[in-house]
Amino acid sequence: METPDGAPILPKAELHLHIEGTLEPELILELAARNGKVLPHPTLAGLRAQYQFTDLQSFLDLYYANMAVLVTEADFADMTRAYLGRAREAGVRHAEVMFDPQAHLARGIPLTTAVAGISSVLADSFDEFGITTGLIAAFLRDRPEDDALDVLGQLLAMDAPIIGIGLDSAEVGNPPSKFIRLFDRARDAGLRLVAHAGEEGPPSYVWDTLDLLGAERIDHGIRCVEDSRLVERLATGQVPLTVCPLSNVRLRAVDTLAAHPLPQMLASGLNVSINSDDPAYFGGYAGANFAALVDEFGFDADTLERLAGNSIRSSFARDARKEELLAELAAWRAAQG
Ligand SMILES: Nc1ncnc2[nH]cnc12
Ligand SMILES: [Zn+2]
Fold it and tell me: What ipTM was reported for this prediction?
């Protein structure tokens, strides 16, 4: 991939992306019209005016409300196709995409509609966009574990093409200890395990996500810097942390990008990657996150290579694909001089 002026784009993997968080306001209005849904804010300007967040919950309220426009398989497919187009422009070469099955079931949308709509597009993502992909079913931690177990059972029974499970939604007050059986069940089924932790929640949630749930990757994890023993543990084990800088600023997890702990995390030797989380809500896709970091911290080519390399190595892509992408990354670095 190259920019319009011919410069190569940093090749990267995106490991922390909620597909429902890629629903751009324009597509929300288009799908609402298609499905005869009346939105509380039916104009582009009115809808956009809602995108001011004070914390995670204030965002989640809008994120779940906007999902009402996703009704048919074609809606899920259109959303997924739009994401892949934008991801390609951002230099994403491998993407592990989360979706929230419980949020759709709760609205009366059959699991098969969401799964078939998203996965039909992911199945052709390499041929159409040059992006290899995997699908992760994320479970809502503000709902009971039994509900998650029931939905995981349905996904397994229908042989849904998922590579793993995740844990998302309102973190504080919903500790990892609530989901031990869910993660045990997913591990037994051969699924990969990731979970949000340390976004708004305390360092103890990150410890428990590792020790009680056995998660292989931590989504966010930025509050680890408050606990030096935890930082040591994460650094020693090179546990991947999928950091989302623009998300953290927009959800007020940090005051400003300048105050973001990312430079400290890198200096501590942590395995950090850069991701976009819910790019339609937080001001941009992977490329915008990298650009903001370069603007703010003046990251050089070596640091960008390290961040992109971490994303590739921490992915669940096949080894041969990782090698291919690491070679592309080496070529990018060589072109930087
Ligand atoms: N940043 C985030 N944290 C927790 N749950 C989410 N669901 C979608 N985006 C999320
Ligand atoms: Zn997230």
Answer: 0.98
